[in-house]
Amino acid sequence: MTDAGRLDDPGRLDAIVRTGLGPKADPMFDRFTAMVRHVLHVPVALVSLVDDRRQVFPGADGLGEPWMTQRQTPLTHSFCQHVVVSAQPLVITDARTDPRVAGNLAITDLSVVGYAGMPLTDADGRVLGSLCAIDTEPRQWTTTELDLLADLALACSDSLRLRIASRAADRREHVAGVNLDRTRLLLRASVALAGTSTVDDVTEAVRKLVVGTLDPDYVGISLFDAAGRISLRSGDSLPAGVARRWHRYGRTALTPSALAAVTGIPVLLPDLAAVHALVPDAAATFREMGWQSGASVPLPGPNGPIGALTFVWKQPYALDALDQAVLAALGGYVGQAVQRADYLYSRERVAELLQQALLSDLPPVGPLELAARYEPAARGEHVGGDWYDAVRVAPDHLALAVGDVTGHDMRAAAQMGQLRSMLRAFVVDRREPPSAVLGRLADAMQLLGDTTPATAILAYVHSDDAGHRLEWSNAGHPAPLLLEPDGTVSTLTGHNILLGVQGTWPRTDHTRALPPGSTVLFYTDGLVETRTTAIDERKRQLREALSPLSAAPLPDLLTAVFTHLAGHDHEDDVALLALRVPPA
């Protein structure tokens, strides 16, 4: 017996698998058996493929039940195995007396007596099975009949080879498609992750990227915290109890994320057996969530892994080499995105602390009330040139200021800090009208070479037995609004040229008595300027929003005004300062 004729030859068995044929009717091979029955006038014809355990009949005609339905038999019922082993035709006149097959159960169970089988081969000449004609009576096969059967077997072999080649082409096309999908995934990842600014953004981007490709049931990102523990940064998509359990834990825990992050090696969990063997600390969570497989890859950082990217599935999933390569590459992209997000977060925190340091706390001003609010632009460095200030110069003299230096970045914040400090110094230096103070500020800016455009309004609240009076001067700033107790809103008009303009310009003062219970709202242009709505319409909307708030606590008033006019996605910095006069 040659290797090619062994039933358990690996190449031969692989070729059978590559036909895609099994114990199921195939129209093409059923036609071959129909032709054999018609040409040779036999009651049964089969296309039989023989592996090392059984034979299957993708083509069958005339076979009795239950075999016709089952389309397979064990080798105890196979004459065709002799065709495979010998790689030669097998011709039997009466199986009951032929020593080669006399003990075969096909004689009694399938009524096989006369048999003629021709080899069916693949492109490499390996015998995969036989095309056979069967008679239930002894049969003396003629040379013409055997020649016809051999010709049909050659045609049937060609069909088998075509089937193998076609499936191989389909497989190559499928692999090419998968490769293309994975390549597109990585290309999309490089673009999508470049636009992220928080770890939550990164997690959501990855979830969207893998839809239609890897299709995990959960995507997780875990990072080392400052103490070296594992911190889950994607718990929002998990049940609260599971998220709390893995919110932060030790690096020695045997979980997919910890193992990948600590070792720097991908952790592949194709089934629950692997989960229990490699990451037993996570087994209970897998069981609770209905997960059956998973994979974690380390997120590379400048000094080693910074965490892990984890996928899990609710069915067994063995990642092939391509999937593993894609997951590793995706981990690299995610690592870069997470580091960038952490850098941006740190920068934003520094900017916010700087902004808070530049905006002083409001002084006690009883019986008057003060409230302020600063909101950086929704996009950018979370710091800018908008500012407010309040200085109690004397018991009866309160100075209020609101301003805006062009820009909403670190540079604008630094320039704002300089202007605010100079204005504060000028206010406490001597008693003089607001216009004179703004004039001195403008002169100082010119002397220092600061030509950055800036707006500001400086107002004094004078208090005496007669009541409260507002005196102000406006350097190109949006006019404040006066809200009276009955809801009437009026604009405190009058303004002069902004700061930072070369030359000496006239500046004027304006005064207005403040009725008991009235409120003055100072604001910067970020509250009312948008790209889509005219400024006059926005100012009308502001007056309309302010009108019903005369009795609202000042912090609530500022929140309501900001939410109504600017909202979550505002484009510019916003500073608000509100003053309320006590009721009569």
Structural features, described:
The protein is α+β, with helices and mostly antiparallel strands. It folds into three domains: 165 residues, 2-Layer Sandwich (Beta-Lactamase); 151 residues, Beta-Lactamase; 222 residues, PPM-type phosphatase domain (Phosphatase 2c, domain 1, 4-Layer Sandwich), CATH 3.60.40. The chain is 39% helix and 23% strand. A hairpin with a 2-residue loop joins strand 16 and strand 17. Helix 2 packs antiparallel against helix 6, helix 6 runs parallel beside helix 12 and helix 13 packs across helix 14. It is rod-shaped, with a radius of gyration of 43 Å. Keywords: Hydrolase. Pfam families: GAF (PF01590), GAF_2 (PF13185), SpoIIE (PF07228).
Give the secondary structure arrangement, pairings included.
Elements: H1 10-19, H2 27-40, E1 44-50, E2 54-61, H3 67-70, E3 72-74, H4 80-86, E4 90-92, H5 106-109, E5 114-121, E6 127-135, H6 143-194, H7 199-209, E7 218-224, E8 230-232, H8 240-245, E9 248-249, H9 256-263, E10 267-269, H10 272-278, H11 283-289, E11 293-299, E12 307-313, H12 321-358, E13 369-375, E14 386-394, E15 397-405, H13 410-429, H14 434-447, E16 454-464, E17 467-475, E18 481-483, E19 489-491, E20 510-514, E21 519-523, H15 535-546, H16 554-565, E22 574-580
Antiparallel strand pairs: 1-2, 1-6, 2-3, 4-5, 5-6, 7-8, 7-12, 8-9, 10-11, 11-12, 13-22, 14-15, 15-16, 16-17, 17-20, 18-19, 18-21, 21-22
